[in-house]
Design a protein that fits this description.
Length: 178
Amino acid sequence: MGNRAVFLDRDGTIAKDVPYCGKVEDFELLPSVTDAIALFNSHNFKVVIVTNQSGIARGYFTEETLGSIHNKMIKELEKFEARVDTIHYCPHHPDDGCECRKPKTALFRQAAEELNIDLERSFVVGDMPMDVSAGRDLGCRTVLVTTGPNGGMDIVDAPDYTASNLLEAAQWIVKQSP
């Protein structure tokens, strides 16, 4: 039996949604995210971030800058004894037709293979319909958080749960998975 995981979207789910966030100083964790991730850690979930970052393909920022942003995120989480196990991102433009851009599932499957994740025992949490759609395609349970700019819009694939923030989502997820 593989590991349980929580796949998290980045912008609008764990961090303030800044369009094409390309500056380290613009990156900011949302309130209670550190508590949520620490809760996942304490319940032995692998924590995986899967994020579309087309700002790279659009020339707004480089992969090096994205790495600096992610290093800031990791350091902020560490201050609160919270950690992510891996970060996967799609650097492509939406028109590129790649297999890694959400709602496609290649990045999720890559992380699942690397970390021996049992997708049927795992969850996908995000603020957009594409996150819920990807989770459904993977066979994961899904949570929509209303912290992003679209704040709980109508979606075709209804999530298993809707939460006002990541901490509420985390509390629901740990109750589902004793």
